[in-house]
Amino acid sequence: MIGRIPVLDVRPLVDCGRRAAKAVAGETFQVSATVFREGHDAVAANVVLRDPSGRVGPWTPMRELAPGTDRWGAEVTPGSEGRWTYTVEAWSDPVTTWRHHAAIKIPAGIDTDLVLAEGAALLERAAAGVPKKHGREAVLASVDALRDPAHPPAA
């Protein structure tokens, strides 16, 4: 069954997945996949490497390889010899969706107060998941700026 955000045609792929793709330890290679969703909301994706003992390594953000193609990719590098595996994770990206809407509506003067309030609420929820030492205050400063009536909307 395909979910709401399908991840299809994951590569590298050898012999329809019957054989393992191979790389030399320290060699960087691209993992790519087709990632999309219904509607106009944005998506985002990561590649997650697992080392030969099964430990989850750092995730690597994927980027859209060519606008409008739904093809996403990221460069990854296994750090040692052995059977590494990877997973592509994808999700709805509400912050990017909001930024896209704001970039259209605010310059046009359409629902400016509503767009700013939605952005502030969204970033406030996001700030709860950001550790204090990794930038929570910066996200909360953005929330305050979006709610500040003295700030012009385009600032």
UniProtKB/TrEMBL annotation:
Gene Ontology biological process: carbohydrate metabolic process
Residue runs in coiled coils: none
Domain Alpha-1,4-glucan:maltose-1-phosphate maltosyltransferase: 3-149
Classification via Gene3D superfamilies: Immunoglobulins (2.60.40.10), Phosphotransferase system, lactose/cellobiose-type IIA subunit (1.20.58.80)
GO MF, any single term: hydrolase activity, hydrolyzing O-glycosyl compounds
Domain of life: Bacteria
Protein name: DUF3416 domain-containing protein
